[in-house]
């Protein structure tokens, strides 16, 4: 099968936007992707036809229940989960992580240990750091100069007192893909819980929670062409006994035990549509098979564009690229760099004026910002490849960075 990017682009209304005469090119996917028409229509259809609360004795409520069930089934297929009952929803990944941390904090004793990493987004650091309030000792694993978890330091941070290890699948800032197989083996060897942030990984790679053998996994639909909804996978039996924040009228069992208040039903309809959109790229007899083949095509397409971008930037003077190089293990199609002598926010603004939407800053990965001493430069310029980006857009971006670089050289000299 070939990847028909120009056909797919027709599904995204926002891609037709222009900025000061320039066609908009959305390289801001790591902060949230654009949304296809199918997702927009699914959300609108819910409000137009069956807007109601759940569990009522009338048709629109029954249809709302069906939407929730269908979304759990779709999310389970996306993550390779054994049952829809292992899937819970929340406002976003951060909210779910804090809810999970509060519940787990009630099982923590003074002196218990928690391991996080310097590579992670604050949403997978801050919630676990709150466990220090219960007397836990929180260790943060160092990162290497090429943006990977320092595995020797990781091993040194583990002990028989370690109860929780929270790591990311992939860095939202650098694109690093972590060695989850080794991390899992080391974590389970000491009977600690493994909690995985897959927010940046989910848009680019297939996920199999059974193969990962994680205890909890979190991701966000707005990173894979859907609306703002957080998704939590919990290993069977774990959520049922956790002392979560819940009302007494709330169901005690998973997946409801961690879901507080009325869900955003319209957004859940959009999540299903987003997952089905990715599946439609692939082929197969089941939704899971379609997702696996679809994500493989997406990965290959995005990887080729990211390599082109990486190679182009690598050939420019005064450009420093951060993170592992391509060809040295699995890597997400996210490239972050700095331009010598320029503030990264200013670089992002320059590109934005030319219809090239990139991010500048720390992207909530604060420890990377601090460890690499990027404060004076305003952090990094981050470029993310999504399934709707094109080779022509990458060429435009490279030309714009080259032109900016030449302007900088002229100014400096």
UniProtKB/TrEMBL annotation:
Check the record and name the InterPro entries matching this protein: Aminotrans_V_dom (IPR000192), Cys_dSase-rel (IPR011340), PyrdxlP-dep_Trfase (IPR015424), PyrdxlP-dep_Trfase_major (IPR015421), PyrdxlP-dep_Trfase_small (IPR015422)
User: Pfam families, alphabetically?
Assistant: Aminotran_5
The Aminotransferase class V domain covers 26-397
- GO molecular function, one example? catalytic activity
Recorded superkingdom: Bacteria
Q: Which PANTHER family is this protein grouped with?
A: CYSTEINE DESULFURASE, PYRIDOXAL PHOSPHATE (PLP)-DEPENDENT ASPARTATE AMINOTRANSFERASE SUPERFAMILY
What this protein is called in its record is Cysteine desulfurase-like protein
């Amino acid at each position: 099968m070939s990847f028909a990017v120009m056909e797919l682009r027709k599904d995204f209304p926002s891609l037709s936007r222009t900025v000061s005469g320039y066609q908009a090119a959305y390289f801001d996917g790591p902060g949230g992707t654009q949304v296809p028409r199918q997702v927009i229509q699914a959300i609108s259809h819910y409000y137009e036809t069956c807007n109601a609360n759940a569990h009522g004795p009338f048709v629109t409520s029954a249809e709302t229940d069906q939407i929730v069930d269908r979304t759990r089934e779709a999310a389970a297929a996306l993550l390779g989960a054994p049952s829809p009952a292992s899937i819970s929803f929340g406002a976003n990944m951060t909210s779910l992580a804090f809810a999970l941390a509060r519940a787990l904090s009630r099982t923590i004793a003074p002196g218990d240990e928690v391991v996080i990493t310097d590579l992670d987004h604050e949403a997978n650091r801050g919630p676990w750091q709150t466990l220090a309030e219960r007397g836990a000792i929180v260790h943060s694993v160092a990162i290497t100069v090429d943006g990977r978890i320092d595995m020797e330091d990781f091993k040194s941070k583990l002990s028989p007192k370690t109860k929780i290890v929270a790591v990311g699948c992939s860095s939202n800032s650098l694109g690093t893909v972590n060695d989850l197989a080794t991390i899992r083996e080391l974590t389970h060897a000491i009977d600690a819980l493994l909690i995985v942030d897959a927010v940046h990984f989910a848009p680019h790679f297939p996920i199999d929670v059974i193969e990962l053998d994680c205890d909890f996994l979190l991701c966000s639909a707005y990173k894979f062409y859907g609306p703002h909804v957080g998704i939590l996978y919990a290993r069977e039996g774990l959520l049922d006994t956790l002392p979560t924040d819940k009302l007494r009228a709330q169901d005690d069992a998973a997946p409801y035990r961690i879901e507080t208040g009325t869900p955003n039903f319209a957004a859940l309809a959009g999540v299903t549509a987003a997952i089905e959109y990715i599946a439609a790229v692939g082929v197969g007899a089941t939704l899971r098979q379609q997702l696996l083949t679809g994500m493989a095509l997406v990965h290959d397409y995005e990887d080729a564009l990211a390599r082109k971008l990486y190679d182009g930037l690598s050939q420019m003077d005064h450009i420093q690229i951060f993170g592992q190089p391509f060809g040295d293990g699995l890597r997400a199609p996210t490239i972050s760099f700095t331009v010598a002598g320029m503030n990264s926010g200013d670089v992002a603004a320059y590109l934005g004026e030319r219809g090239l939407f990139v991010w500048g800053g720390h992207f909530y990965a604060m420890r990377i910002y601090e460890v690499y001493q990027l404060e004076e430069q305003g952090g990094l310029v981050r470029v993310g490849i999504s399934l709707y980006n094109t080779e022509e857009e990458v060429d435009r971006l490279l030309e714009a960075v080259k032109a900016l670089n030449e302007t900088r050289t002229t100014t400096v000299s």
